[in-house]
Predict the 3D structure of the following.
Amino acid sequence: MVLKPNMAIAGKKSAKKSSVAEVAEKTLKVLKACVPGAVPGIAFLSGGQSDEDATAHLDAMNKFGGLPWKLTFSYGRALQHAPQKAWSGKSENVAAAQRVFSHRARMNGLAALGQWKADLEKKAA
């Protein structure tokens, strides 16, 4: 079994944007209260967040350590949005989209290990 929830983020109409630490803390609080440790993995949906925010949130949760589950993405928007935008349906953009996809996969892979850093986003894919 793999649980596929959303993270606890502020609503779109909220005047206050939650910090990365707050999203991680609140999401983990809910999971610890509701999800048995026997669940092997939690694969988050990333909708409603930017690519980098979703990656930062996942990374922050994994940095807490000592969690009973593996935390990752279900690899929807957090992995696909940027490459689709780079590609824009044009064959001449395929290579650029592949580079962006590879970069997003690397960033999210690091976040799943709690090893992501914001400055890595700025490095070339």
